[in-house]
């Protein structure tokens, strides 16, 4: 069963906002390449970005997959993107496995 997006998430999807682009970059594993495009502004990933990415995936909007339920997949993703993650991000990603 697919999950429905919230009204704010649906609006972000339709308008292709920065929040949507951030979530898509997470799912497509393109955060690092986005950071390289603008080295003066390298924003860290936020928990909100991760949650939106998870919601997009659960709603079936994104074909790109990051399996948030697979411990190994999450750990590999954290290792590959650790320089863009805060301690809160890592805690949020690892919380389901505690």
Question: What features would you describe in this structure?
Answer:
By secondary structure, the protein is mainly alpha-helical. The chain has one domain. It is built from six helices and no strands. Helix 2 crosses helix 4.
State the shape: globular
Order of helices and strands: HHHHHH
Give the overall average pLDDT. Answer: 88
Provide the helix percentage. 55-70%
Topology, number of strands: 0
Largest sheet, in brief, is: none
Rg, alpha carbons: 13 Å
Question: Structural class per helix/strand content?
Answer: mainly alpha
Q: What fraction of the residues are assigned to beta strands by DSSP? A: under 5%
Low-confidence segments, given as residue ranges, are none
Count of individual domains: 1
Intertermini distance? 25 Å
| Helix run count | 6
Topology diagram in text:
Blueprint: H1 7-15, H2 18-27, H3 31-37, H4 47-58, H5 71-81, H6 87-94
Helix pairs in contact: 2-4
Quick overview:
This protein has helices spanning 7-15, 18-27, 31-37, 47-58, 71-81, 87-94. The protein is an all-alpha fold.
List keywords for this structure.
mainly alpha, 98 residues, 6 helices
């Amino acid at each position: 069963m697919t999950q429905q997006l919230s009204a704010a998430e649906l609006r972000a999807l339709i308008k292709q906002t920065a929040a949507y682009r951030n979530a898509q970059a997470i799912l497509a594993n393109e955060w690092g390449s986005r950071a390289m495009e603008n080295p003066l502004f390298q924003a860290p990933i936020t928990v909100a970005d991760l949650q939106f990415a998870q919601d997009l995936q659960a709603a079936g909007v994104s074909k790109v997959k990051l399996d948030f339920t697979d411990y190994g997949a999450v750990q590999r993703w954290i290792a590959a993107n650790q320089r863009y993650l805060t301690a809160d991000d890592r805690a949020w990603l690892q919380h389901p496995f505690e």
